[in-house]
C-alpha cells in the first residue's frame, strides 16, 4: 500500500512537471535578397587598374578580338585571356573597371562602360592597360542580372544594388504556417542583359572584335552604337583613342540587344525585333518591327534569316509575361517587312549563335543545344549538353566559346554532329 | 508502406497468437515465462505558449494541443522484472504523423504472480519515421528524428493473466522539414526543426 501511495505521488509529481511541456519549432529561412550599393562619381573615377589574372566569379558577356578573349566580370571588370590555343587558354590579366558590363574592341582600343561613363582603354599591352579617354555621364541607368541602377545627378551618386543571401531564424508555431515568400524581390531575376553571341557576319572583323552577348555595344566601321533601355547612343571612332559622342536616338522602351547585319541594325527589344536602316551611319532610320508577346529575346541574323529566341521567365518586371519559350525564324530579306517563317519550341533559351548554318542555343540550366539550320523551315537538333548552365555563346572559326554560370567552355565544332570539348575555365567555387 | 503493415501485422500476430491455438511446450513456456507485452493508447498533451518575435513586442499565442498516440511494446524478460524489447507506434499530430520505432525497457515491481496493483516504469528511445506523410514535391523533404518517451504507471490486474495499465510520461518527437525553391537564380530555402515535447497519458493492457 505504501508502495502504491508513493507511486501515485510520483505520478502526480510527473504530471505537474510534464504539464508544462511545450513544443518548440525553429524555422530557418535562407533567401536571396538585395542590398543597396552606392557609388559616388569620385569612387567611379578612381582610375582603371590592371591587376594580375583572377578567377572568374560572376562572369557576364564575352568578347573575342583576334587571339584575345575578354570575359566581363559583372560590374567589376574584364578578364583578359590569351586564347591563341583554345585547348589551353591562359589568363593574362584583369582590368578592374567599376560598373562594367559591356565591351567592344577596335584595333588596340577597348571600349567599355563604367556605370555612367564610357571609357576607352589602350590594351596594346594587356598587362598595363591605359585609360586614354573617358566620356562622362553618358548613361543614366542600366540593368544587369535583373538589378537596375540609377544615376542621381543632384548628389552625383550611382544607386545600385547587389544580391545577398540572407538567413533568418525564428521560433514559429509548430503547426506549419502558410508559406510566405520572405522578401523575394528578385524571384524573377535573370540574365536578360547577357545572352547572345553571334558570329562575325557583320562589322569589320579585321579591326573590331566579335561580340558575344546581347551586346549592347556594336562597332560598325567608324562608329560604335550603344543601346540603353530606351536610347541608342552613337560614338564616332574616327580617332579611336578619343571617341566622341555624336548623337542619340530615342528607340522606345525595353531595348536589350543590338546586332549589326549588312547595312541594317537589328535591335532585340522585349516587345519584338526592330530593324533600323544604317545606310547613313550618322543617323540610322527606323525600317520595321515584328512584335510578339513580351519576352526576352536576343536576335542573330545569317543569310537574311533572323533567329530570335523568346524566353518566358517569371519575370514580369523585366521581360514581360509571355508564356512561350521558343525560337522564331524570320525572313528578313526584305527588311522593311519581315516575315515570321516558323516557330520552334524551346525550354528556356538565353543566348544563341549561328555560324554557317550551325545554330547554337543556350538553354540556361538545361545546357546547350546544337542545331542544323540549313533549312530554316526544318531545323534539326543535333546534340544536347545538359550538365552546364549556359547563357552565352560565340561560334567563331570552328571554336565555340560558351559562357555560363559555371565557367567558360570551348568546343571544337568542325564536326557539328559531335562537338569536342577543348577546355574549360571554371568559376571560382563559392567558399 | 508495405513494410510497415507487415511489421504491424507481425506484432499484432505475436500478441493474439497465444489465445488461438495450443502451443508447443517450449514456445508456450517462453511466452508464459519470458514474453512481455504492453499495448496502450492515449493522448499527448501540449501546453499553450507565446512566441515573441525578435526585436519586437509582437507575439502570438500558440494554443495548447492534444494529439492521439498508440504504441505496442514487445519484449522478453531478461532479468527478474526487467524486460527489454521493441516499441512501435503511431503519433498523430495535426499536420504530420510519426511512426516511432524504439528500443524499450520495462521494469515492474513486485511478484508478477501476486494479483494486486503494482507499479512499472519504462523508457523507449528510437527514431520517428515519417512514412505516413504524403510524398511531397521534389523540392520538399521531410526527415524523421529522435523519439524518446520515459513513463511511469500502474498495473491493475484484470483477473486473468493480464493487467490494465495507466501511465504518465513524457514524449519527445523531433523531425525536420525542408523546402527549397530555385527560380532561375533566385533561391529560397525554408528549413524547420520541429521539437514536439508532450505529456503522455496512456491506458492499455499488459501481459
CATH hierarchy: architecture of chain A: 7 Propeller
CATH class annotation of chain B = Mainly Beta
What is the distance, rounded to the nearest whole angstrom, between the alpha carbons of the first and last residues of chain B? 29 Å
Number of helical regions of chain B: 2
C-alpha Rg of chain A, in Å?
26 Å
**How many E strands of chain A?**
34
Q: Name the helicity range of chain A.
A: under 10%
CATH superfamily heading of chain A: YVTN repeat-like/Quinoprotein amine dehydrogenase
Shape of chain A: globular
Q: Class by helix and strand content of chain A? A: mainly beta
Number of strands of chain B: 11
The end-to-end distance of chain A, rounded to whole angstroms, is: 67 Å
Mean pLDDT value of chain B:
83
Question: What would the keywords be for this entry?
Answer:
heterodimer; A: 431 residues; mainly beta; Methylamine Dehydrogenase, Chain H; six-stranded antiparallel beta sheet; four-stranded antiparallel beta sheet; 50% strand; globular; B: 207 residues; Porin; two-stranded antiparallel ribbon; 11 strands; 14% helix
Structure explained in plain terms:
The complex is a heterodimer of chains A (431) and B (207). Chain A has 2 helices and 34 strands. With 431 residues, chain A is mainly beta. A 6-stranded antiparallel beta sheet of chain A has the order 2-6-5-4-3-14, with no helix packed on it. A 4-stranded antiparallel beta sheet of chain A has the order 1-13-12-11. In chain B, the strands form 2 sheets. Chain B has an 8-stranded antiparallel barrel. In chain B, strands 2-3 form a two-stranded antiparallel ribbon. Chain B has one domain: Porin. Helix content of chain B is 14%, strand content 62%. Chain B has 207 residues and is mainly beta. The chains are: A mainly beta (431), B mainly beta (207). At the A-B interface, helix 1, strand 1 and strand 13 of A face strand 9, strand 10 and strand 11 of B.
Amino acid at each position: 500500500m505504501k508502495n502504491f501511495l508513493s507511486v501515485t505521488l510520483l505520478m502526480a509529481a510527473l504530471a505537474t512537471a510534464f504539464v508544462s511541456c511545450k513544443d518548440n519549432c525553429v524555422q530557418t529561412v535562407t533567401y536571396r535578397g538585395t542590398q543597396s550599393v552606392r557609388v559616388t562619381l569620385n569612387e567611379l573615377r578612381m582610375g582603371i587598374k590592371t591587376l594580375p589574372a583572377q578567377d572568374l566569379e560572376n562572369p557576364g558577356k564575352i568578347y573575342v578580338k583576334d587571339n584575345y578573349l575578354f570575359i566581363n566580370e559583372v560590374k567589376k571588370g574584364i578578364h583578359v585571356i590569351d586564347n591563341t590555343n583554345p585547348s589551353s587558354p591562359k589568363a593574362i590579366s584583369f582590368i578592374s573597371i567599376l560598373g562594367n558590363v559591356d565591351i567592344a574592341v577596335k584595333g588596340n582600343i577597348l571600349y567599355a562602360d563604367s556605370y555612367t561613363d564610357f571609357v576607352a582603354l589602350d590594351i596594346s599591352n594587356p598587362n598595363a592597360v591605359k585609360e586614354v579617354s573617358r566620356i562622362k555621364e553618358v548613361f543614366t541607368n542600366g540593368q544587369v542580372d535583373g538589378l537596375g541602377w540609377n544615376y542621381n545627378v543632384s548628389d552625383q551618386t550611382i544607386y545600385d544594388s547587389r544580391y545577398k543571401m540572407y538567413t533568418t531564424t525564428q521560433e514559429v508555431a509548430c503547426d506549419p504556417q502558410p508559406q510566405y515568400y520572405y522578401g523575394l524581390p528578385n524571384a524573377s531575376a535573370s540574365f536578360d542583359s547577357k545572352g547572345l553571341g553571334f558570329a562575325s557576319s557583320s562589322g569589320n572583323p579585321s579591326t573590331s572584335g566579335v561580340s558575344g552577348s546581347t551586346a549592347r555595344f556594336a562597332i560598325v566601321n567608324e562608329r560604335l552604337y550603344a543601346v540603353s533601355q530606351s536610347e541608342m547612343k552613337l560614338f564616332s571612332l574616327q580617332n579611336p583613342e578619343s571617341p566622341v559622342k555624336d548623337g542619340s536616338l530615342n528607340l522606345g522602351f525595353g531595348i536589350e540587344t543590338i546586332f549589326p547585319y549588312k547595312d541594317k541594325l537589328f535591335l532585340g527589344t522585349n516587345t519584338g525585333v526592330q530593324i533600323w536602316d544604317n545606310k547613313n551611319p550618322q543617323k540610322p532610320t527606323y525600317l520595321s518591327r515584328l512584335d510578339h508577346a513580351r519576352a526576352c529575346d536576343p536576335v542573330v541574323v545569317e543569310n537574311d534569316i533572323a533567329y530570335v529566341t523568346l524566353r518566358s521567365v517569371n519575370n514580369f518586371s523585366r521581360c514581360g509575361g509571355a508564356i512561350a519559350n521558343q525560337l522564331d525564324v524570320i525572313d528578313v530579306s526584305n527588311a522593311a517587312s519581315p516575315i515570321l517563317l516558323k516557330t520552334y519550341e524551346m525550354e528556356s533559351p538565353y543566348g544563341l549563335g549561328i555560324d554557317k548554318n550551325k545554330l547554337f542555343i543556350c538553354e540556361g540550366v538545361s545546357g546547350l543545344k546544337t542545331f542544323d539550320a540549313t533549312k530554316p523551315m526544318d531545323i534539326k537538333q543535333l546534340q544536347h549538353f545538359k550538365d552546364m548552365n549556359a547563357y552565352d555563346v560565340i561560334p567563331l572559326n570552328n571554336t565555340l566559346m560558351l559562357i555560363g554560370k559555371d565557367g567558360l567552355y570551348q568546343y571544337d565544332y568542325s564536326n557539328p554532329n559531335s562537338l569536342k570539348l577543348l577546355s574549360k575555365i571554371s568559376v571560382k567555387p563559392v567558399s | 508502406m508495405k513494410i510497415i503493415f507487415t511489421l504491424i501485422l507481425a506484432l499484432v500476430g505475436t500478441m493474439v497468437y497465444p489465445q488461438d491455438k495450443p502451443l508447443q511446450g517450449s514456445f508456450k513456456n517462453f511466452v508464459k515465462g519470458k514474453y512481455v507485452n504492453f499495448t496502450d493508447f492515449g493522448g499527448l498533451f501540449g501546453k499553450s505558449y507565446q512566441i515573441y518575435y525578435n526585436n519586437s513586442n509582437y507575439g502570438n499565442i500558440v494554443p495548447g494541443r492534444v494529439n492521439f498516440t498508440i504504441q505496442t511494446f514487445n519484449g522478453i524478460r531478461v532479468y527478474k522484472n526487467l524486460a527489454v524489447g521493441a516499441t512501435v507506434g503511431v503519433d498523430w499530430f495535426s499536420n504530420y504523423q510519426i511512426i516511432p520505432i524504439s528500443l524499450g525497457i520495462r521494469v515492474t515491481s513486485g511478484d508478477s504472480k501476486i494479483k494486486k496493483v503494482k507499479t512499472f516504469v519504462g523508457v523507449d528511445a528510437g527514431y520517428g519515421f515519417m512514412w505516413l506523410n504524403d510524398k511531397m514535391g521534389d523540392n520538399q523533404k521531410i526527415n524523421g528524428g529522435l523519439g524518446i518517451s520515459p513513463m511511469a504507471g500502474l498495473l491493475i490486474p484484470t483477473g486473468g493473466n493480464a493487467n490494465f495499465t495507466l501511465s504518465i510520461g513524457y514524449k519527445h518527437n523531433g523531425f525536420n522539414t525542408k523546402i527549397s525553391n530555385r527560380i532561375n537564380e533566385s533561391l529560397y530555402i525554408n528549413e524547420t526543426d520541429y521539437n514536439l515535447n508532450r505529456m503522455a497519458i496512456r491506458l492499455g493492457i499488459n501481459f
